[in-house]
Amino acid sequence: MNNGDEDLLKFVSKGETYNLEITTCKCMTDCRHYLDDKETCWDAVILNAEIKTFPNEKPNVNNLYRAVDAIKKYRKAIPWFVVTTREMRNKAAVLSVLPDNERYYNIMTEHKELFEVVRIKVSNSPLNYVLDKYADACAFCNHPDFVKLLENLEFPPKEMEKDVTIPNTCRGLLEWLETSEIFKKYNLSYKDISHRLEEKRQYEIEMHKKDKNRMITIPPHITRSFHFCCEVANDGSHEKGMTLTKKSIRDGRVPYLNKSLILNLLNILHWCALQDKETFEL
Predict the structure, then answer these.
(1) 135, pLDDT greater than 80
(2) Which residues contact 18 (CB under 8 A, 6 or more apart)?
(3) Are 261 and 167 in contact (CB under 8 A)?
(4) DSSP output for 247-262
(5) CB 55 within 8 A of CB 49
(6) What is the residue-averaged pLDDT of the chain?
(7) DSSP characters over 195-246
(8) Higher model confidence: residue 183 or residue 195?
(9) Could you tell me the CA-to-CA distances from 21 to 61, 81, 102, 109, 143 in Å, in that order?
(10) Separation CA 262–CA 271 (nearest Å)
């Protein structure tokens, strides 16, 4: 902030009275670090109109363009707002960055209006919609890549059926799943579950807790979802060469494959969410 940390602290304090938890960044580099954090979901971004690129440089309104580009790159779906602590000299430069019919806010005198707009836009955002609709699965896995897939599912972007990055994203989420508490607790592996499909319809794993035998049963439809996701995600994730799956997606010959992949992954994570609740009650 131009007037030092005091203005920023006052702004954060005012946000708390509106039940808004605000995390501050000293510069655009710090902001990009937070946006790139794959373990955290953010509801909105509030940008200082005269943002710094690095901590030791002078504030410059021209950096605002790069900051908005970074938001669109790292967290395209979340709403963003522009604020200032004083009367702007270069109003035209700030307004040119904003979408039509949008404005910037002075956080010293217009914080109430800003917080109300933030509340409304966040509640109506695609992000909030999917977090509410798929609450159980998102509570278990709030990884931004998973949330982005759900947004694509509900609000399909143009030519999503040709997006060759979706299988690799799903593969990454399957690998994330192995770091989850329930997978570590039962010593599970998504590849092992997928391979067990050929051995028997129900995959049972014994678990010892407090000297008592415990067992988790993975039902056939979940086992088959694991098998489907593993096969498609792996074949569609190869960086070198063009596999049949990847080529078919790129050429638009399998228009429902990406959607099927997301739905099967959702099926798995929803089931894991329910199991996660039950196992902690044992």
Answers:
(1) yes
(2) 115, 119
(3) yes
(4) HHHHTTS-TTHHHHHH
(5) no
(6) 82
(7) HGGGT-SSEEEEEEETTEEEEEEE-HHHHHHHHHHHHHHHHT--SSS--HHH
(8) 183
(9) 26, 15, 23, 20, 19
(10) 14
Lookup: tokens for 218: 């993975």
User: Would you place residue 189 in the very low, low, confident or very high pLDDT band (cuts 50, 70, 90)?
Assistant: confident
**β pairing state of 80-84 and 105-106:** parallel
* Tokens matching residue 5: 């940390």
Paired sense of beta strands 105-106 and 45-48, if any:
unpaired
CA distance 157 to 162: 10
Nearest alpha-carbon partner for 279 in 216, 224, 234:
216
Write out the two tokens for 83.
Answer: 């604020």
CA dist., res. 15 & res. 203, Å (int): 49
Q: How far apart are CA 223 and CA 216, in angstroms?
A: 13
Reported as a single tens digit per residue, the pLDDT across 22-37 is 888 888 888 888 877 7
